[in-house]
Design a protein that fits this description.
390 residues, alpha/beta, TIM Barrel, Lyase, Ornithine Decarboxylase, Chain A, domain 1, 2 domains, six-stranded antiparallel beta barrel, six-stranded parallel beta sheet, 17 strands
Amino acid sequence: MTTAHTGEITRGVRSAQPVSVEQIQTPAPLVEVSRVVRNLDRMADYARAHGLQLRPHVKTHKTPVIGAAQIRRGVVGLTCATPREMEITSDVANDLLLAHPPMGVKVQRLIDLPRSVSVTTALDSAEVIDHVGAAALAANRPIRVYVELDVGMRRVGVGTPAEAVALARRVADSRSLEFAGVCFYPGHIREPVDAQGRKIAQLNADLADFIGALEQAGLAPSVVSGGSTPTAWHTHEMPLVTEFRPGTYVFNDRTTAGIGACAADDCALTVLATVVSTAVGGQAVVDAGAKALGREPMRGVNAAGFGSIVGHDDVVVSAMSEEHGTIDLSGTSWRPRVGDRVRIVPNHVCIVVHLNDVLYAVDGDRVTEVWPVEARGRVTPFAPGPITAL
């Protein structure tokens, strides 16, 4: 684990090589540090301007150096998707939310986090409440709980105010759990930023029903936590929300830019790839396929492909196999040659980060640092032991 977590954004693990982008083996993720700094500052400034608590999601970057940078900008804490993310980010943050119902051995991993860390988890069932509560009681470790609401995503969360009241009461009556508030994820709002108004109005109405029922039951939530990068800049138009949890904004991606949640030059992470074949007419093939770019299509806008080429924004990776990406050249006069390098803006940056061991922090064509993606994966590494030959 890096020992430079509490330094500035430009601190990480020093690497003697490579020192320039040309020395990096492709495919590889490049992160323009100046753009990350700008993205971090802009969201922190927005939160302060509107009196909102910012609890960013680390699933996008999975790196303590960026988590530490977020903490320095005054966020209330960090949001995690996995116990592994919580274990790694507990080195830089003392207030963590697991935005995923924990079951089985995952609960023990929450219990085992440093006692200096305030732990909150999002739950939506009596079964998980009882499971977490029993483990917390046995360990004498209080756990804070957000009751998760479904406001349209149809993934997790209770769908009626009565269910929310029942779960909040169950948490409040627990000897080891604290009812800390409610949370929701508006992942169903994927439209362009300027077309989200109708769904946000409905979300506000649904939230009012939930919060009203909780208040009437004497269970007024101290925190109403919700949000995403696509809706982040509308959070001040959700008057009941006190805390929001965007993640992608750190790097942004083709989808974020496509819906207008950022500008094209706010996309801080690109995948560096090398052209390896032009043998088939009308296309070029690069060494970045599904294992470098992910296979997620664009959401929220009608756009083809799995990534766009920097400097040739209308040219996309139109097809992929595991290690090959096909660039469609039918609509452009640009003809890359074998050996040329390109930078690709991925559709969904979170997936790309999870596919890599390190991120190359760059300033133009100069590599400034190499950041390990320490929170990738799901399990704590095991100590090596004897392995039977096959």
